[in-house]
Design brief:
Elements (H helix, E strand, L loop, with lengths): L3 H36 L11 E2 L3 E7 L12 E10 L2 E10 L2 E9 L6 E5 L13 E9 L4 E8 L14 E8 L7 E2 L17 E10 L2 E11 L3 E10 L7 E2 L11 E9 L4 E11 L3 E11 L10 E5 L15 E5 L2 E8 L11 E8 L15
Parallel strand pairs: 1-18, 9-11
Antiparallel strand pairs: 2-21, 3-4, 4-5, 5-6, 7-8, 8-9, 9-10, 11-12, 12-13, 13-14, 15-16, 16-17, 17-18, 19-20, 20-21
Length: 373
Amino acid sequence: MLSKRNTSLMPSVTSSRLCRLAVAALMISLAIGSTLCAESRYRDGRPEATLRMNATDNGVVMRHGDGPDSCDIYGARDVWVFAANDTFYLHYDAAGPRGWLCALAVSADLVHWQKKGAVLELGAPGEDDSRSASYGTTYFDGNVWHMFYLGTPNTSRPPNRVPSFPYLTMKGISKSPSGPWIKQKSIIPFRCRPNTFYSVTASPGHIIKHKGEFLQFFSASVQDPGTRRTLGIARSKDLNGAWSIDPQPIFPLSEQVENSSLYYEESNSTWFLFTNHVGVAEDEYTDAIWVYWSEDLNKWDTRNKAIVLDPENCNWSKRVIGLPSVIKVGNRLAILYDGLAEEGISHMRRDMGLAWLQLPLVAPKVKFLGKGR
């Protein structure tokens, strides 16, 4: 039996503990509630990036419609920027009378572009790129230029001819960054595979040479029945050979991201991976550029991500923010992307924009509330 003195103290101690527990529970509840709110921004509950690494938007730098042979009369999008001999080269998807083809534009300053026209043609009937030969990423091995491009035998009806699944990775080679490009039809880097995370998309991405091998951060997706998207790593020691694909993607399919452009920040030994997020409103569309960061190319955590560009800081495209490609220019990182200077979320009538990030890149601070990957 408790003494009278002890029993008189007990309510005070219990109340104090209960108060502390209540406060702690409230804080946890608020934190979890905030997280859940962020995770449910999209109607299907797909994850959201809650941090920001805001780019400064320069606006439109290249409009569709005036390319040689009407090559981009219906739109210009899905960019890949690279540099050689003090010139910037831009591969982009030119939507023209024959379909979406990889086209070239060149510039000395990333702002003023001269269009050169399509650098790839459609494949023959029955070939994997018979309906589209587009989105050409490049790698220079010190001797020749390699292009990995997207091919598909399927598109929507004319005149739009929007590429549709499967999205495949195909190969070309050139002695010059401006072409001409020779298709290497006998080379099959990798293909979609049933019952994997790349069952309907296995399309090209940024290539990094790392520890004696090439790593390609390729786009992958499945349909079950809705489309889910992510990035995977393909590996090879021969750019003209086959690639092996890691059994697991670098992010869960629920992240809903596609396409890759990487930058290494030497000052803090960190890789920054820029990618396109696919959101959903009345339908799915590219709604933002996200960035993930890691000190290890082979290990990525979905908590380490931020919004770089979306309608909040884009000054001309108020809904659509398309595929990014980044390149270092002096003490800034340039981001080329596509957008839509009208209402709606159409794949067509896209133009090219330019945004900037100041270097060195520093990742936003992350507060972990639970387990991540």
